[in-house]
Amino acid sequence: EGRAALASFTAKGVHANDLATLLDQEGIAIRSGHHCTQPLHRYLDLAGTARVSLSFYNTREEIDVFVNTLRETLDFFASVFSE
Q: Which are the catalytic amino acids?
């Protein structure tokens, strides 16, 4: 009760589709886009969001892989944009 198995998020300066594409290349599947909430995205001035979904079949190790791969991907974008 009171728990959700998904999280929508943004990464400053990174389009959700670009984030999803690079994560996909590492074997991590997430969704990107409006997720049926385009009016909310418009109100929040967002081009879209990324969304990760978890379920009972995900292991802690898989979640750790997602978090580490997300961190590495965001570090990559930070290095590209800082040049």
A: 36
